[in-house]
Amino acid sequence: MLPTPEQIREYIASNLACEHIEVEGDGSHFQAIIVSAAFEGKRPIARHQLVYAALGDKMKAEIHALSMKTLTPEEYKVNG
C-alpha cells in the first residue's frame, strides 16, 4: 500500500521537531515544505539529511521520491 501525504507528514513530525510541515504527492512522489528550528545554521544538504534520518527506512521502502524545501522558522516568515 502506498503512503499518503498525511502519513509522510506524520513520519517526519514524529521524529523531527517541526513548526510547520506541508506534504503533497501521489503515493510515490512527494513534495514537502518543512520548517524546523533544527535547521538553524545548517546547509541544505545537512537539512535534508535530518529529514531523511527522520524518515528512516521508510525512505527506502515506501517513498520513491521526495523533493523538499527546508526552512528555519525565520526563513519561513520571510519567504513563506
TrEMBL record:
Transmembrane segments: none annotated. Pfam families: BolA (PF01722). It comes from the Bacteria. SUPFAM superfamilies: BolA-like. Coiled coil: none annotated. InterPro entries: BolA (IPR002634), BolA-like_sf (IPR036065), BolA/IbaG_stress_morph_reg (IPR050961). Belongs to the BolA/IbaG family. This is BolA family transcriptional regulator. It comes from Advenella mandrilli.
